[in-house]
Fold this sequence. Notes:
Residues 1-27 form the signal peptide. The protein is α+β, with helices and mostly antiparallel strands. It has helices at residues 2-21, 24-29, 46-54, 155-165; strands spanning 31-32, 38-44, 58-62, 66-70, 73-84, 89-92, 95-100, 103-113, 118-125, 131-140, 149-153, 175-183.
Amino acid sequence: MKKTILALLALVLTAGMTGLVGSPAEAATAQRSSTKVGYTRVVVAPAVYDLIGTAGITPAPVQGAKAGAFKGTLAAKFPITGYRLRGLRIKHSGGLNLSAGSATITVSRFNIDLARLRVSGRVNGTVGNVGRVDLFKVRASDRRDLGAVKLTLTKTAADALNATFGVNAFAENATFGYATPKPLSRF
């Protein structure tokens, strides 16, 4: 399964990024930063979107991200600001703020690390400034209509959400959403 996910995303990225740098060999060693070179769309799983709404948690894009309705749930777009095909890493700007009353958590500056099949991000909010942590595990999608890959919660992310909002609703390995990198697409 790991090879399938890596092959799918590497194909998407290589095809998109080679137009920026020329040959596939140049693309393999390329590194870009501080330049928008597309975006990654993340769709919140419908069950999670319902859970968030029921718990009174309001999501809002921050730091240049965009969000809106998508197939009965929420989709957010995060600008791709850098990538490294060697090591298979995609950097993003923007993020999401989740709030309910005085409780808040902001996750931002996501990095997709395909070599480890993890998505990390900077976390701060009511629980304090946690710093960069692994938020999601990248898995094969069971809803291709929502995204190329499935994002499941890490224990760290599930515990932070539960602690921040005083719930027991989030669990390690539970599906949070779906992601599709779209290199060279207009943000």
